[in-house]
Amino acid sequence: MRIERIILQTVRLRLREPFRISSGETFHRRILLLTMETDAVAGRAECVAGESPNYSYETNETARWVLEAWLIPAVLGLDFQEPAEVAAVLDGAARGHSMAKAAIEMAAWDAAATARGESLARLLGGQRARVQAGVSIGLQPDLDTLFRRIQEFVDEGYLRVKLKIAPGRDVDMVAAVRSRFPDLPLTVDANAAYGVRDLDRLCKLDRLGLLLIEQPFSEDDLLLHAELQRRIDTPVCLDESITSPARCRGAIELRAGHMVNIKPGRVGGHAASLAIHDLCRDAGWPVWIGGMLESGIGRAHNVALASLPNVLLPGDTSASRRYWTRDIVCPEFALNDDGTVTVPTEPGIGVHVDEAFLKEIEETRREFTA
Ligand code: OSB
Ligand code: MG
Fold first, then answer.
1. Which of 80, 136, 262, 346 is 20 to 30 A from 299, alpha carbon to alpha carbon?
2. Alpha-carbon torsion, ordered 114, 115, 119, 122, to 10 deg
3. Distance between CA atoms of residues 342 and 127, nearest Å
4. If you take atom 8 of ligand 1, which residue's CA is the nearest one?
5. The dihedral of CA 183, 287, 66, 369: what is its sign?
6. Is the pTM value of this prediction over 0.90?
7. How far apart are the first and last CA of the chain?
8. Phi, psi dihedrals of residue 154, rounded to the nearest 5°
9. 266: exposed, middle or buried (C-beta count within 10 Å: 0-12, 13-18, 19+)?
10. 79 alpha carbon – ligand 2 mean position (Å)
11. How far does the centroid of ligand 1 lie from the alpha carbon of residue 337, in Å?
12. How far, in Å, CA of 351 to CA of 100, rounded?
């Protein structure tokens, strides 16, 4: 398959409700979409970078620049059989910038699966027809609003609720939620908001029956995560820290946690995600698939990956309507009665892109030809 053309589009989609984490609030998403046209079929993916560098150093604009200046020129004209060949070229073309690389790499997987007439999930080695869905709830203005949002998501059928926490909005808030919802599968995510002085405070979360505590400390501080994991029984789950398989191997070796939130868009794509999945399986670390408030295109990639065997907890792979009034794919992702999302079985990502709607919300478009 020869890569003939790559199209970069930005679209703007407003979230149904603003999403607030420890480092900032998102009201709408400006999403960078990538289409890879080969001489046979096309593949699609989205870049998960946000507009501001508050989750990682990458943003829409850094990703767009590195794609246009370095990554797209490196792969245009490339003739590949396996997506791994595309990943190797991308890694040779620039250091870091994994979110930018992932957009090309994941589009190559969609194209490869489509060319073979099989679903992306199947090509990845997925083994589940439906994947368990959790929901991630942003920081809320007050406890009553938080209780109400949790109840609504529980009523919709979500199997696990993840609460965002931040210094000053942690132990008491989570304890209150726990006494209101004694049996709810519950997790917390700090998005790296804590430091060494907060160790004692974080240890108090250990008594609240959480499935995991996600990324309390800075992404590069594996040793501090290891220190916390030595002091508590609740698994520490790494998100921002795991940017590559090598980083994952280091985390396992250092016992910097006991679980990983894999986001293919963060780690450079599906090949890296599979490697991380396997490293964790071999180490006895469960994994689950996170999200970055993706449109249906990124969601389709995440859901396909969630069908792998060592994905042992519900993911942040929620239904389209949790995020958007109208998604850009059809059919939209919906929550089944059993709290799962169905893994598409059609070739590639297995959903159709609503091109007419895309045109309506498109802000920029550039094409690059071999
Ligand atoms: O840390 O998992 C995170 C959203 C944006 C950036 C970072 C994170 C999140 C979420 C929401 O928690 C996941 C989702 O529902 O897509
Ligand atoms: Mg997280």
1. 80
2. -150
3. 12
4. 292
5. negative
6. yes
7. 13
8. -65, -45
9. buried
10. 36
11. 23
12. 22
Ligand with smallest separation from the Cα of 259: 2
State the closest ligand 1 atom to the C-alpha of 318, by its place in the atom list counted from 1.
15
Q: Which of 13, 16, 20, 21 to mutate to test the pocket of ligand 1 (most atoms within 8 A of CB)?
A: 21
Atom of ligand 1 lying closest to residue 214 CA = 1
Task: State the residue for tokens 């917390």.
Answer: 188
From the CA of 189, give the closest atom in ligand 1: 1
User: What is the rounded distance in angstroms from the CA atom of residue 166 to the CA atom of residue 172?
Assistant: 12
HSE value, Cβ hemisphere, 13 Å, CA-based, for 110: 31
CA of 135 to the centre of ligand 1 (A): 9
Q: Count helices and strands (H / E) in the chain.
A: 14, 15
- Closest C-alpha to ligand 1, atom 13: 291
Rounded to whole angstroms, how far apart are CA atoms 184 and 328?
32
- DSSP class of residue 2 equals B
- With beta carbons less than 8 A apart as the criterion, state whether 263 and 277 touch: no
Q: Specify the residue with its C-alpha closest to ligand 1, atom 1.
A: 191
Ligand 1 within 6 A of CB of 290: yes
Query: Is residue 327 within 6 Å of ligand 1 at its C-beta?
Result: no
The residues assigned a catalytic role are: 164, 263
pLDDT of the chain, 370 residues: tens digit per residue: 999 999 999 999 999 999 999 999 999 999 999 999 999 999 999 999 999 999 999 999 999 999 999 999 999 999 999 999 999 999 999 999 999 999 999 999 999 999 999 999 999 999 999 999 999 999 999 999 999 999 999 999 999 999 999 999 999 999 999 999 999 999 999 999 999 999 999 999 999 999 999 999 999 999 999 999 999 999 999 999 999 999 999 999 999 999 999 999 999 999 999 999 999 999 999 999 999 999 999 999 999 999 999 999 999 999 999 999 999 999 999 999 999 999 999 999 999 999 999 999 999 999 999 9
